[in-house]
Amino acid sequence: MKDGNMKEYALYYSRLGLAVFPVKPKSKQPLTEHGLKDASKEPAQIESWWNRWPTANIGIATGAVSGGLVVIDLDVDKDKGIDGRVTLREWEAEHGKLPDNTWLAITGRGGYHYFYHDTSTVRNRAGIYEGIDIRGDGGYIVAPPSIHPNGNTYEWEQDPMLYPLAEANGAVFDFLVGPASREPEPILFELPEQIPDGQRTTAMVKLVCSQQAKGLSDEAIRAAVRAENEAKCVPPLTDQELEKEVFPALTRYQKGTAPYTATYNHKTRSFQPIIKKGPVNLVSMDTVEEKEPEWLVTDYIPRGQITVLAGDGGSGKTTIWCSIAAAVSSGGPCFLNQDNPFAKDCLPGGVLFFSSEDSAEYTLKGRLRRSGAKLENVLSLDLADERFPEIKFNAPLLEELIKEYRPELVIFDPLQSYVPPDIQMGQRNAMRACLNPLIGLGEKYETTFIIIVHTNKQVGLWGRKRIADSADIWDIARSVLIAGEANDGLRYISQEKSNYGPQAQTVLFRLDSGKVEFEGYTDKKDKDYVTAATAATYQAPAREDAKTFILDYLKDGEKETADLDGMMKAQGVSGETLKRAKAELKKAGTITYFSRGFKPKVHYCKLTNPIPSENVTE
Length: 618
What we know:
Elements: H1 6-15, E1 20-23, H2 43-52, E2 57-61, E3 69-74, E4 76-77, E5 82-83, H3 84-95, E6 104-106, E7 112-117, E8 125-129, E9 132-135, E10 140-143, E11 155-158, E12 166-167, H4 170-177, E13 195-196, H5 200-214, H6 218-232, E14 233-234, H7 239-246, E15 260-264, E16 267-271, E17 295-297, E18 301-302, E19 306-311, H8 317-330, E20 351-355, H9 360-370, E21 378-380, H10 396-405, E22 409-413, H11 430-445, E23 448-454, H12 471-476, E24 479-485, E25 491-498, E26 506-510, E27 517-522, H13 526-554, E28 559-560, H14 561-570, H15 575-587, E29 591-596, E30 602-607, E31 616-617
Helix pairs in contact: 1-2, 5-6, 5-7, 8-9, 13-15
């Protein structure tokens, strides 16, 4: 990209998955009517803006609109004695360093923008520390090579072309929380005197959480909630409603041990929770029975554990899990092991699936049938069933169904539909607490779980970074499979994590017939395919320009191929781009190659027309 070409940079940022909008030159004020709300990733819109305002600065909207972009903004104001860089160094000395292998920009005043990826809701916060702001949902930053009002240029110190966008880790989460108060504030929670219908469940769940924070026993919390429900809810929640909607919160949060202040009937009193102490029974390793891992699908899906199947939209995730479900329900071989002579057929058993994206009638039954499923062994809860919304990873109803039907395999599609509404997926350890019950169910009922996950839409990410929403999902899974498109209709499943052995080979397959058709194995991984696709994406504009030039060069008639190649090289077109451009034009039938003579034979190229017969060899 040419330095200072704002349109090229704006289009480049959009290809990274960032939403951009024009900002007045040498300013931070948006040019469009709705400002950052107009931010777009659409090339046509971006072209239109910068064709109209070619010198406009570039604004990048932060937060969810840019795929979960969070920016830590370190300001420098020498006149006011403010230096966010110093503030950050002091914080890091006490709490640990923030990830520095990420995008990093120098602002017009000499401050810094630290860029991170976090799909949880992060709001704008001004002055969270001295000289430091947080840019998240509802915010934006001005990006390089924009010009600051003081005339200085925003610059990349760590360019997205050379550095990854780092995932927000524990240190970043701690930083985003803000400075802790030196004096711990008491935990205060007071119910209103009367709680009307529509607010009862929320109020009772908050009461459960406040009592959990105080370290009360489950029995004490249940008693307190029942008493407050009878006294203040109008009308009181039924026992069934309490068990279904309120008391599950007891399993979601760890009990606190800090001193707290409770307010009840307008009287405040301080308490110190009592920590029960008892004997700790350690286990000697010589008494532990060593076991080999069991597999539902050899090398790919461990039995009784969580496997994540991730992929972009259209990568075939649904057809893949239907094929796996078919193998389990029928006790037959799975396509993942089709050419593995050492693999065993799947253990025959029931399959239970929950899908909030595809209907059984119009989509799923047909795919299961085409995949060879024993349909009487495949069960589901209809999406229209009034109890479907109760299906969450930690819901009592889920265990009831597993206990009654004892499925060999349970499938959740997609992840987001089965996360409890009070869980923030990007918050550290939140998803772990939510998914932990599945581990217990797997051990208790020997059930295997497959969770379908949408991959991150940002360009150039692979492996762990492609798993959207939460690092906990990757960590808690024992196997992670990523599906993607290779080329010409060929697709792949790459195992990116395996806790019970070396990663298995990548499986190649097609979906041309509406079911999985095994094509073979390869040692390539998700990174190899993503890197190739990313390179092709960035080469595409240059390749299109090269094709246009070739057609223009040939419009006056045939040319020697050597002359064409020399002319393209003089235009700065790389050899690889030229090769691809000519190949695409030939494949489309737009240009034709031929040769004349014998010694020496001269090669020619022309726009497709009848070729003279004399002295011509195709």
